[in-house]
Amino acid sequence: MDLILASASPRRKELLAQIGVRFDVSPVDICEDVLSGESPEHYVQRLACEKALECFNHTDKTIPVLGSDTTVVLDTQIMGKPRDRSESLEMLLALSGRTHQVMTAVAVVTSERTDSVVVKTDVCFKELSREECESYWWTGEPLDKAGSYGIQGMGAVFVESIKGSYSSVVGLPLAETAQLLTRVNVPIWQSGKV
Ligand SMILES: Cc1cn([C@H]2C[C@H](O)[C@@H](COP(=O)(O)OP(=O)(O)OP(=O)(O)O)O2)c(=O)[nH]c1=O
Known about the structure:
This protein is an alpha/beta fold. It contains six helices and seven strands. The chain has one domain: Maf protein (Alpha-Beta Complex), CATH 3.90.950.
């Protein structure tokens, strides 16, 4: 095992496995409140670093740890996961017919250094009706996702176009993650080797 993934997200696990990294999963629980006056970019970067550090500090510090955070940003408004149906509807209706940014930060901590990156992707939504948002809520998909939708799931029907990294919207920007891992000598492409 070459890395610890400090995340409970099934998407991050799948994405990291996709690029052939050998890792174990060890989720952490940190406070995800936004600080007063904090920019979205600073917020995601801080959370990714805190998740990775919190996990690293509970290990013997010999294996690098990766933490990540994804948030949806509309103008300057930060959208995390919806608390309930009414918050989900509010978020989806605000995103309707507009372009928002999905920001995902990745942080890798070793005993020598902490490296991090923030990746921003523009996502353009078609116009949504209240009825559509309501039926989408009942699919169960919005609940554990920033901005209340999953581009990789049924929420794909809302997305007219994206500019940037698809994997970043799902939860882990793979090109940038591979770069961070290579810098600390964590190998990729380990599965399916001949
Ligand atoms: C926008 C969008 C977000 N998401 C998900 C990715 C993240 O799992 C989640 C945002 O929540 P996060 O707080 O970034 O992550 P998490 O709580 O799921 O996992 P952990 O903190 O343990 O790493 O939203 C999608 O799956 N699809 C999407 O299209």
